[in-house]
Amino acid sequence: MLDRNAVGRTTPPTLNEVEKGAIRRFAESLGDYNPSYFDAEYAKASGFPGIVVPPSFPLSFTSSVDLRELLGVPSKHLLLAEWSADYERPVIAGDRLLMTTRVVEVAVVEDEGRDERGQLVLKIRRTYVVRSTREA
After folding, report:
1. Can you tell me the mean pLDDT for 3-19?
2. Cα separation of 79 and 130, whole Å?
3. What pLDDT shows up at residue 119?
4. 52 in helix, strand or coil?
């Protein structure tokens, strides 16, 4: 059963450091060999300030609490149905982002990433569906 009282709960900010080796491994796991994910000079020539992350990379960022559990359903019963990200600027290797997560609806969470100056870098919205918790 989803905990409707979870709506509005927010985690404290958690530091996530964007490391170029993690970007490389993530891109390789996707089979995406865009040189902007591997080569700083290529990324700069393409208009980025450094090695850039693949669009779905920020889904790997963490916050201090797994809010899915606050929804009242074990994580193994929650499936990511949809996600979207709004970027204020590209996320690049060397970024240090403070991630905060907030429950905005019963099965919807939003993550907000800010740089160390407090500037908004990205927002991620994730919608979950609940698998049956009944054992077969």
Report:
1. 90
2. 6
3. 98
4. strand
| Rounded Cα distance, 76 and 94, in Å | 32
Q: Global pTM?
A: 0.86
Burial of 96 (C-beta count, 10 Å sphere; 0-12/13-18/19+): exposed
Q: Tell me the β-bridge partners of 98.
A: 15, 114
Three-point CA angle 24, 25, 31, nearest 5° = 90
Per 3-state DSSP, the chain is made up of helix, strand and coil in percentages (nearest 5) of 25, 35, 40
Burial code of 54-93, b = ≥16 C-beta within 10 A, e = fewer? beebbeebebeeebbebbebeeeebeeeeeebeeeebbbb
